[in-house]
Amino acid sequence: MLEIKNLKSVASIILKAVKNKEKIILYGDADLDGVGSVVILKETLQNLGCRDIKVYFPDREKEGYGISKKALSYLKKFSPALFVALDCGIGNFKEAEIAKKLKFNLVIIDHHEILDKLPQAQIIVDPKQKNDPYPFKGLATAGIAYKASKAILRRNFSENLKNSFLEIVALATLADMMPEKDENIAFIENGLDSLKNTWRPGLKAFFEIESIRERRSIREIAQRIISALNATIVKDHLNEAYLILTSSTVKDAKVLAEDFLEKSRKRQIMIYEIVEEIKESHSEKAEEPIVFEGSLYWSFALTGSIASRICNYFKKPTFIYKKLEKESRGSVRMPSGLNGVEAMKKCSSLLGTYGGHPVACGFTVKNKNLEKFKECLIRYFEKYAN
Predict the structure, then answer these.
(1) Does domain 286-385 have CATH number 1.10.10.10?
(2) What residue spans define the domains of the chain?
(3) The CATH classification of domain 7-154, taken from the options 3.90.1640.30, 3.40.50.720, 2.60.40.10, 3.90.180.10
């Protein structure tokens, strides 16, 4: 049976680190796929008796996507350590070099598009790597983390653990909008089936809230949970979604769940207002082949959701960014059949970082290069359209 390239090697590296009592850092992207992947690996390590685990999630508002220099500066006090980047890292070339200098053994487990080269890591697991024989390229990182856990624990991969991890994989796969085909069908169906009778306090808590219980199907319930977990923020390097998923009591988790549902409601209002603002401003630029809009006042955490709605409305490549003092950080959404990563490759000399999936990706760009970046994208999509 074909396996994801380097999956067994990563399992061996992690087992060796546990055996040698090395410090292990789990660094996850701050979305549900990254959070879920960290939870799966952390609980896997705990099942092996490992306790020296540091968990870190970057604050997207302050650090952007991926491995950040700010994070490495903070984490260097834990060096030397095995540094496992989850749902990020594949585009962090400079940061990977810094990690190496800081004596971190960097392992990257990701599912985003490979750019022109690979970062300097000890080992990389990404089904989209060149010469990876694994036929299905549409797994969420949580799905890859699940497979890694299975390879690490082997006979100790209990039925309870398996079902609990499948619940997380299902939510992460849906949240990341991965294709619902091949292996993902089983992940989603089995995960949602287990979710109905979950033992995990952080998920069980949602079923005790009336507005969730009254939903007709488990799929609807899952989408409400995803919306709530997506409304969470990072505090002291820990994502609130991680805190609820690792909560030990339903009582404590229910307080968090109710808070997240309220945050989700307010978040939807903010998204709606910004979307309406963009619809109005872009109607004056209807001849442009892309939507390229940003503001000092928008939250970066909302740019992905805003871009999705605008892309669906205008049926155009959409670039929505948060403007900071010196640079801007943005989210990209593409109509079906177009590739945002390939488009940004053509403009990469203007960018700080970029990457993701063909239809959902992100970028950082210095403010002085914003207009040049927009012009480059317009040229690319005018040429592509022709």
Answers:
(1) no
(2) 7-154, 286-385
(3) 3.90.1640.30
DSSP for 206-250 reads GGGSHHHHT-SSHHHHHHHHHHHHHT--EETTEEHHHHHHT-S-H
Instruction: Give 220-274 pLDDT, tens digit per residue.
Output: 999 999 999 999 989 999 999 999 999 999 999 999 999 999 999 999 999 999 9
- Write the burial class of residue 77 (CB in 10 Å: 0-12 exposed, 13-18 middle, 19+ buried): exposed
- Rounded distance, CA 292 to CA 193, Å? 41
Q: Quote the mean pLDDT of the chain.
A: 96
Question: Which pTM value belongs to this model?
Answer: 0.94
Task: Please state whether 138 falls in left (phi above 0), alpha (psi between -120 and 50) or beta.
Answer: alpha
Q: How far is residue 205's CA from residue 198's CA, in Å, rounded to a whole number?
A: 10
Within the chain, what is the greatest distance between any pair of CA atoms? 62
Which of 42, 308, 331 has its CA nearest to residue 168?
Answer: 42
List, for residues 354-369, the tens digit of each pLDDT value.
Answer: 999 999 999 999 999 9
